[in-house]
Amino acid sequence: MARYLVAAGTAEDPERGYEYAQAAKRLAARVGVVREATGIAAYQAGRWAEALAELRAARRMTGNDGYLPLMADSERALGRLDRALALLREADTGTLDRATQIELRIVESGIRRDQGLADAAVIALQVPELASKRLRPWSARLFYAYADALLAAGRTEEARDAFARAAAADPDGETDAADRLDELDGVEFEDLDDYEDSEDFPADPG
User: Fold this and answer.
1) DSSP calls for 61-87
2) What is the pLDDT of residues 177-199, one digit of tens each?
3) What is the average per-residue pLDDT within 112-116?
4) Residue 186: left (phi > 0), alpha (psi -120 to 50), or beta?
5) DSSP 200
6) Measured between alpha carbons, how far is residue 88 from residues 8, 27, 39, 109 in Å?
7) DSSP for 32-72?
8) Around Cβ 20, how many Cβ atoms within 10 Å?
9) What is the pTM of this model?
10) Which member of 13, 16, 86, 100 has the greatest number of CB atoms within 10 A?
């Protein structure tokens, strides 16, 4: 069972990770960490309803509210915005670590954008860490979400600055902040294969 959980957590292909998690569940469906892994794998594979069911089960078994951001985002993906907001309100933020608190705000911002409330989406992400020079593991996600909210609110220059901060905080490319920044700056890249096939591409000197 443990091997399947490790494989699920490290698989690059979301569907393969989901299959490994399902294998673990078949062996130990009553173990909270297994239901958690299954829910996360389902979420990453875009199986929103299944992710909700598994994460609800994990929450019942463990009492852990850390699953609420993924649960609320799954409700959002299913178009059930009121249910998503209700889940966010269930969170006792005083018991959650800061990373989970930030994830809750990111999801709330996305919900507000879906509701057409662009200004509320911006406000949801206005936390002290936006002005801090210290980078956390979740800083890139926060800056990226804030940039998206600003862009939706028509605040393009501020959005550009936020995308630039997200790109600088994201050396591993967890987000596509660098691409979004180039897009705002009007930078376009031609496909190298197309260029190589063109008459303008220099001949191979060898």
Assistant:
1) HH--GGGHHHHHHHHHHTT-HHHHHHH
2) 999 999 998 876 555 455 455 55
3) 97
4) left
5) T
6) 27, 32, 18, 11
7) HHHHHHHHHHHHHTT-HHHHHHHHHHHHHHH--GGGHHHHH
8) 21
9) 0.85
10) 100
